[in-house]
Write a structure and sequence with these properties.
Layout: E1 5-10, E2 17-24, E3 36-37, E4 50-51, E5 64-70, E6 75-81, E7 87-91, H1 98-113
Antiparallel strand pairs: 1-2, 3-7, 4-5, 5-6, 6-7
Length: about 120
């Protein structure tokens, strides 16, 4: 199964929710990894979502920006949503050596400070 994103709108006059619109992927499309617009987007088991704070700058046509981890794809997806419900989904660039470099740097720092030794597996 894939995941579908919907946008739920609130009526400003009485505060009730009155409009639910499919904005990314479509029921029945299945799972996958495809960036793009609306129904062409594919996800595989996104986990949770955060909304990035609005910095007040007009640097994008999109009003709301969300980040969600796409677990089975082991990637982060950026969902840009404008006030008319138009969505653009893109993958956050991922460097396959990012974790290795990060942990090597942490290990080197710990050795220099003398607070810990790097963990090493030894074969018997």
């Amino acid at each position: 199964f894939g995941a579908v994103l919907f946008r739920l709108s609130k009526d400003s006059s009485d505060g009730s929710y009155n409009n639910c619109v499919n904005v990314a992927n479509k029921l029945g499309n299945g799972r996958g990894w495809r960036d793009g617009h609306a129904e062409e987007v594919r996800f595989t088991r996104p986990h949770s979502m955060i909304r990035l704070p609005d910095d007040g700058q007009v640097h994008t046509i999109f009003r709301d920006v969300f980040i969600l981890p796409d677990i089975d794809n082991r990637g982060m997806r950026r969902v840009d949503l404008d006030e008319d419900g138009i969505v653009e989904v893109s993958s956050v660039p991922y460097d396959e050596n990012m974790w290795k470099r990060m942990y090597e740097q942490e290990s080197t720092t710990l050795r220099k400070e003398g607070t810990a030794k790097p963990f090493v597996l030894e074969n018997d």
